[in-house]
């Protein structure tokens, strides 16, 4: 997707467009990286491009499961989630960029499908877990989709900083390269060093 979300004649089009734009932006931060580079944490934090992609896959996947299960609640193992907290940011030995992006793309597709077809006013119950407000019964699908935009946007910003620290590539160059846009006059598409 180009640099901006597309014009949106309807609220649904706007939600779907911004979700797609943010998901694409985060995905493009991995464009041209090596298996070693997706594991680098060149900033003060321990965040990596691969870890951010994995975390967003888990986080967005969890929210989409809530939409898909609504008005019921998806199964939730609170103890297992508390024990696993933070592990979704870790790129394991068996992870590859290809496997990380395949899982990410599958969840992205589910999120876009939910934005396309779910009842925006539908009720999504708040699971009973310590990280959710105890006095809140639930959200609308609309709120959940807006939260997905917020969540992905926050981590896309993290990934932009990490990517720039790895090899100097910035968002416009990466999007232009990944989307095959050619010379735009104001920016040259980024190309991996091996090309």
TrEMBL record:
Domain of life: Bacteria
Pfam families, alphabetized: MST
Protein name per its UniProtKB record: DinB family protein
Organism for this UniProt entry: Tsukamurella paurometabola (strain ATCC 8368 / DSM 20162 / CCUG 35730 / CIP 100753 / JCM 10117 / KCTC 9821 / NBRC 16120 / NCIMB 702349 / NCTC 13040) (Corynebacterium paurometabolum)
Classification lineage: Bacteria, Bacillati, Actinomycetota, Actinomycetes, Mycobacteriales
